[in-house]
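Agenda item 2: flavin mononucleotide complex prediction
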Amino acid sequence: MNIQDIISRRISVRAYQPEPASPGDLEAVRLTGEQAEALTGADMQFHLRTDTQMGNEIKGIIGDYGKTIHAPHYIVLASRECDGYLTDAGFRFEQMILDATARGLGTCWVGLMFKEASLRATLGVDDSWRMIVLSPIGRPLKNSLTNRMLRTLAGSKGRKPIDRLFFWQRHGEMLPASVISDRNFMQVLEATRWAPSWMNRQPWRFILLNREILIYKLQRQEREGKDYHRLDCGIAMCHLHLAARALGIRGRWEPGPFDISGISGAEPIGRYVMENKIL
Ligand SMILES: Cc1cc2nc3c(=O)[nH]c(=O)nc-3n(C[C@H](O)[C@H](O)[C@H](O)COP(=O)(O)O)c2cc1C
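Presented output:
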């Protein structure tokens, strides 16, 4: 499966078959997270647990969406704090999620808005670690009504159109015909547009320059000092990078800042510098 197929196949799965998934696959997915390409030097840990090992921890954890997800396994991401760690957490965890998708496993991003302290105790980690996100993981339950209902509730099915997310040289400026007619490159933007985000808010925007793509975010969604829209940005950055790489574009993400004054509430996140592509 190529990366475009994997990205279009991934959806949030909230209903699972109870049988355990293959231990080999689960450990391979966890290792993809541990060994993922990174944006910072932040220490991160990917903890794999069974439903029983998670026990009561999981109950009510999906508070924001008002529903608990039962799955045979969970992978929890813990990170130490440093500049850019949340964006990096999104970037790395999504590499793992896409690897799970390629193996036919279902996943769902679940932001760890609350319960950091009790989760640390369950995992046996000290309070130098922040609990960032978890995903249930296992074989998806086919044709699940719960899954369909929750996707509708979370407003998951659509994404904003390209012309509301990607701009040319400055915020609000339409992409020129030369970019729109570059069908290969447009696939990179399409893969980015389909990135999952908290409540499908799609808080990211992009400005295309000749050799760079700037990413910034328009809103904050902060709990316990963690702005979840930074995770969302990291996820979109992962999709952009993997789709660009599949086309032979050599690029790397560098941290902001850049000037986006005049765009209400906007915060710069990073710039994608392309070595061998001019727009
Ligand atoms: C950072 C983050 C946190 C999320 N938290 C939850 C959650 O607590 N519960 C849940 O059911 N889905 C959660 N989601 C899943 C989103 O609702 C979902 O990705 C989005 O609606 C797009 O739908 P899709 O993943 O099916 O494409 C979260 C997604 C992200 C990126």
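Discussion summary: The pocket of flavin mononucleotide is lined by residues 11-12, 14, 62, 64-65, 108-111, 150-151, 154, 156, 196-200, 228, 231-232, 235 (CB under 6 Å).
Owner for follow-up: CH.
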